[in-house]
From TrEMBL:
The keyword Cytoplasm applies. Catalyzes the transfer of a phosphate group to glutamate to form L-glutamate 5-phosphate. It comes from Pleionea mediterranea. Keywords: Amino-acid biosynthesis, ATP-binding, Cytoplasm, Kinase, Nucleotide-binding, Proline biosynthesis, Transferase. This is Glutamate 5-kinase. GO terms for cellular component: cytosol. The keyword Amino-acid biosynthesis applies. Belongs to the glutamate 5-kinase family.
Length: 369
């Protein structure tokens, strides 16, 4: 197709493009996006669309004078989801399918693989998957929170080689372009670090969506660590999609890791939420070697935070708050708390070597966190 040689693309579209006037869905910006998707498919490139906008699309049907409770926003999402899917469906002459997800669907490994299998079946049958967070039913605990990060998780799950995140600015600037006319657009970012995050300027100008530039950077970090080329582009401009199709960079491109994380490590690091924390002595961080090992036993545990079961993802951090790793726990929070208090039968502690606190093959070291 072009110099990027894409095989499978995940395209994320935000609420500001779906319902720019906050008065239901509009095709104003969707036509050029739909044309881009059609061109990709014509050239053998598979596309997964992650579309926000259900709340914004459904808000016009409710009394906006009253304060919007969580229940009202969920009802807006239920109404708007139908309208949004109808808008997309009218723009294509091929079938589309709806995938509504929550963090809980991504959190459990079996369900994560089920999502992956469903998406591949849709793609293999030339059906366009349209993904959104299930805002109508999800709770705060089960919420991803924004579709930028969700799009990166989906990109990883479907083995995409490109993630395109649409914004209402041209890309990442070194300062807020809305307040600083001298702000400069970064055309290419090789590594997302603290300096890059410092450039995030908060929510976009549209004021409709839940994300901002920071969530887009978080998504780019998730995707690039999985070896996925990532763009932030201006979805308001038809020229953005024309340039992408021509193999040009219309916004900011984030280069993928040369050595991507292994799939299960990426899932633990960027998709699975920690259900609790294990607090260890500060010197554990100093004992971590260059080979990224994390070794500690029950005597190093200071405290256990939260409730979790065997097999849940946990965060390991020091007393000072330094985040060392995420991992799959080999013990419940109850047992680990007893270990920390040394209030457990000695025979159980002696058998710990056969059942360590964490397993090395489910350990993801967190760098510079």
């Amino acid at each position: 197709m072009n110099e990027f040689h894409w095989r499978r693309v995940v395209l994320k579209v935000g609420s500001a493009l779906i319902a720019p006037d906050k008065n239901g869905c509009s095709s104003r910006y969707l036509l050029s996006i739909a044309e881009f998707i059609i061109k990709c498919r014509m050239h053998g490139v598979q596309v997964v669309l992650v579309s926000s906008g259900s709340v914004a699309a459904g808000s016009h049907a409710f009394d906006t004078e009253k304060e919007r409770s969580i229940a009202v926003k969920k009802a807006m999402a239920a109404k708007g989801q139908m309208d949004m899917m109808g808008s997309w469906d009218r723009l294509f002459d091929f079938p589309v399918a709806q995938l509504l997800l929550t963090q809980g669907d991504l959190q459990i490994r079996d369900r994560y693989h089920s999502i992956r299998e469903t998406a591949f079946e849709l793609l293999n049958n030339d059906i366009l998957p349209i993904v959104n967070e299930n805002d109508a039913v999800t709770s705060d605990e089960q919420k991803v929170g924004d579709n930028d990060n969700l799009s990166a998780m989906i990109a990883a799950s479907v083995d995409a080689d490109c993630l395109i995140i649409c914004s209402d600015v041209d890309g990442l600037y070194d300062d807020n372009p809305n307040t600083n006319k001298d702000a400069k657009l970064l055309k290419q970012v090789e590594k997302i670090d603290a300096d890059i995050y410092a450039m995030a300027s908060g929510p976009e100008t549209g004021g409709v969506g839940t994300g901002g530039m920071r969530t887009k950077l978080e998504a780019a970090e998730k995707a690039t660590s999985n070896g996925i080329l990532t763009f932030i582009v201006n979805g308001l401009k038809t020229s953005s999609f024309n340039q992408l199709f021509e193999g040009k960079n219309p916004g900011t491109v984030f280069l993928p890791f040369e050595k991507p994380l292994e799939d299960h490590i990426h899932w633990i690091t960027h998709t699975s939420k920690a259900r609790g924390e294990v607090i260890v002595r500060n010197e554990i961080a100093d004992r971590m070697g260059g080979d990224e090992t994390l070794n500690f036993d029950h005597k190093d545990i200071i405290n256990v935070v939260g409730e979790f079961a065997i097999g849940d993802t946990i965060l390991v951090r020091t007393e000072k708050g330094k985040k060392l790793a995420k991992a799959t726990s080999q013990h419940s929070s109850c047992v680990l708390s007893l270990m920390a208090d040394e209030n457990i039968d000695e025979s159980v502690l002696e058998s710990e070597d056969d059942n360590p606190i964490i397993s090395e093959n489910t350990l993801a070291i967190l760098e510079n966190k």
